[in-house]
Amino acid sequence: MNITRENIDALNAVVKVNIAKEDYSDKVEKILSDYRKTANIPGFRKGHVPMGMVKKQYGKAVLVDEVNKLLQDALNKYLTEEKLDVLGQPLPKQQDDIDWDGDNFSFEFELGLAPEFSVDIKSKKAITHYNIVADDKMIEEQIERIQKQYGKIVSQDTVEKDSEITGTFKNEDKDIDNTVTLTLDKFKGKTTEKKFIGAKVGDVITLKTKGLYEDDHELMHALKVSHDDAHGLDIEVTFTITEINKRELADLDQELFDKLFGKDTVKSVTELKEKIKEDAEKQFVQQSDQKLLNDVTEYLVDNTKFDLPAEFLTKWMQVSGEKEMDEATAKEEYEKSEKSLRYQLIEAKIMEKHGLKVDFEDVKSNAKNMIKMQMAQFGQLNPSEKELDDIAARVLSNQDEVRRISEQVVSQKLLELYKEEANIKTKELSYDKFVKEVYGDK
Questions:
Q1: What's the whole-number average pLDDT of the chain?
Q2: Three-state secondary-structure class, residue 64
Q3: Quick one: fold of 127-134+279-439?
Q4: EC number(s) on record (predicted)?
Q5: Fewer beta carbons below 10 Å: N end or C end of the chain?
Q6: Which among 407, 388, 303 has a CA at the least distance from the CA of 346?
Q7: pTM for the full model?
């Protein structure tokens, strides 16, 4: 067997595999001999079928199968030994003239080669890492929400600004008939609120759906219609009030503190505020870190320049999926995935350069931490190591979960590296200001 490679350019190559008779003949003869021992052919006893007849009936199929196995093994071994960093998979060049009655065979494969490039994590312009804090306004709002949630419900005769109103939305033409409990602050603008203030049980209020809520999702849930039906819906609905209540705020006492956090964990309003601040800012760290990871990723993709074997990859995408694509669709798919592919190559280069690896212990440890947090949400605060190991084993028996957790571990390792190596500036601000600065004033 002989394998040669012709480099077309820095990103494309053709590998030629020549297979001679001596490479496969012994294996083919052995398989045919085994067939002869077991073949059931009318007119012959088992094991006494003439070899010529066995070859005539099975010879070509066995030959094709063995040559293909030999070809794939040889190609994979060659790529490994030559340490070729290929993208996608080798693509066999079209050959319509293979003479399977001959002794020697030649096959050609197109290769897409990974580009040579370097990555510089440190940007010239500093990337912002946000330190998001829970300000007094947020803490007070959270305390009020807690007091409402655990407060008493008191019946009212008429609707006031802070009432909870239960009633039924109806529109016969659109088959809308849905009972909900709502608060006036959810409506868009003050006009709708004014229609409700002073209303009593049994009153029917007519509303226009257009502009009723800021978000179509709110309208969708209120009317119990599909997302598509809610989008741009412009009809009149009636709302018949069946119940009006007000929530009296719960007292900020030890009974409430124990109910929220366990006995004697929090003993005063000051400690409550500190606890709310601490818990909120733990969650903010995750958002801040994800923002930093996204920003560094975007910087690296935009500023790490290299070419890709686009024509090869488009052709590979055309034939590698469950369904073969036409050329135009494959080109479109390649363009959609090019940015993701570029980052995969950049990520691999960074991990190699900095010796970052993900082993099974990393994945297992991450899985156990995730399980521990989930159990804590249901009040199981001190699970044993055996419990965690048993649950983790079940989780990690699912390959999709292993892949997902491995990706999380990679992100964590990269984030730690970026915090150390990237050009980062820290900016402290409240959550409201963070949302406004990062996502716009919504």
A1: 92
A2: helix
A3: Trigger factor, domain 2 (1.10.3120)
A4: 5.2.1.8
A5: C
A6: 303
A7: 0.73
